[in-house]
Design a protein that fits this description.
Helix content is 38%, strand content 13%. By secondary structure, it is an alpha/beta fold.
């Protein structure tokens, strides 16, 4: 038996639409499939303006550029996240201030957020880890109080929602802050052929400039719509548009989004039900989903009692043909940023960095394979807790 950590799903229409894009004669981006994908997100989720990008990282970099940061400005970012979340703002000259995770899940701890704000703070960047919403009512209230921008890193959060007690309705993740970024990397619920992303603009103040930055700093898009009689270089920008064949690939995935999501949720629930008895015995903790959040089944993870236990579990699964992986290392302790961090302890980020393990999760995974994975995890727990020096770690 060999079960990979991830396997990109093909709906069957990708090659057909890519062939169609080639013979439409428009390959460089912003063609028919790019527009269809953007309109899908604007229509389905009510986002004001959507622009496809070559990656989630590029979408974050566009967000950072739109924030118009100045040297010395501060941006609050969770330490337990992928490097792109911080790097996008660092490249604009901002100082990154790292926040700790919640105790109950890896999302940014909104209860301690306000203690990080100074007169130099300009932006808060909540990351919806595993597609589970941060406490956005609290974050948006703090941002409004201090006149800060909120950029949602929704890389993992497609088709996931937050129930707002303030607005008395359910809101799509990526549609709450002024700006947001999604990823269509091959490890995400849907992909644009390996890489891809989406910039979401929810604040009308940023729409025109977003399109200019997207078009390499030119007003080229306005020209092709007939809004100006010529186009030129009017602002900063870069080559953020994906090729049309990537948009065509993504369109095939979007057409099947509901089917993909339903299958992933079935797999997630299968994991949860079969591993719940072991979690109740204290062998590990399972994902926490607050009442205000929905589950988009982006990942299924466990948090083990210790680094040693996690290492042993990953090794045990690998020996049985199952590839499970740990996730982020805390950015505040990274070799690049360690000497720039202010020295604050971020214990929850470090705990997740040491103990969190991601299990295989992809559309083509079968229920039988999930059951086999759970069986091997159960065998591991039986063997591991017999070691006297580890029993306390599992029980506590």
């Amino acid at each position: 038996m060999a079960i990979p950590f991830n396997k990109p799903h093909l709906t069957g229409k990708e090659a057909h639409y890519m062939y169609q894009a080639v013979y439409n004669g428009k390959l460089s981006g912003n063609g028919e499939f790019t527009k269809k994908c953007q309109q899908f997100f604007e229509s389905r989720y009510g986002f004001k303006k959507c622009l496809l990008t070559t990656s989630g990282t590029d979408a974050l970099e566009m967000c950072a550029m739109l924030c118009d940061l100045k040297p010395g400005d501060e941006v609050i970012v969770p330490s337990y996240t992928f490097v792109s979340t911080a790097l996008a703002f660092l490249r604009e000259g901002a100082k990154v201030v790292f926040a700790d995770s919640m105790n109950r899940n890896p999302n940014l701890d909104a209860e301690t957020l306000e203690t990080l704000i100074t007169p130099r703070t300009k932006v808060i960047v909540p990351v919806h880890y595993a597609g589970v919403a941060c406490d956005m009512d609290a974050i948006m209230s703090i941002a409004e109080k201090h006149n800060l921008l909120v950029v949602e890193d929704a890389a993992q959060a497609i088709d996931s929602y937050y129930t707002s007690n303030i607005k008395h309705r359910t809101l799509p993740l990526g549609g709450i802050g002024q700006l947001a970024a999604f990823s269509f990397h091959e490890t995400k619920n849907i992909t644009a052929g390996g890489e891809g992303g989406l910039l979401v603009v929810n604040d009308e103040r940023f729409i025109r400039r977003a399109e200019i930055i997207w078009e390499k700093g030119t007003n080229r898009a306005e020209f092709f719509r007939g809004e100006v009689n010529k186009y030129g270089w009017v602002d900063t920008g870069s080559s953020f548009l994906p090729a049309e064949i990537n948009a065509a690939f993504l369109w095939a995935q979007l057409e099947n989004l509901d089917e993909i999501q339903n299958k992933r949720k079935q797999l997630w629930n299968c994991y949860y039900e079969q591993l719940k008895p072991l979690a109740e015995k204290g062998c590990f903790a399972m994902p926490d989903i607050p009442d205000y959040a929905t589950n988009n089944a982006h990942m299924f993870y466990l948090t083990l009692p210790s680094l040693e236990a996690r290492t042993a579990l990953i090794r045990h699964l690998k020996e049985n043909g199952i590839l499970a992986v740990f996730h982020y290392l805390s950015l505040h302790s990274s070799p690049f940023y360690h000497d720039k961090h202010d020295g604050r302890q971020l214990p929850n980020c470090d705990r997740y960095a040491d103990t969190l393990v991601r299990l295989p999760m992809y559309y083509d995974l079968s229920m039988d394979e999930v059951s086999a994975i759970c069986t091997f995890i159960g065998l591991f727990c039986q063997m591991y807790v017999k070691k006297e020096d580890q029993i306390g770690r599992f029980r506590n």
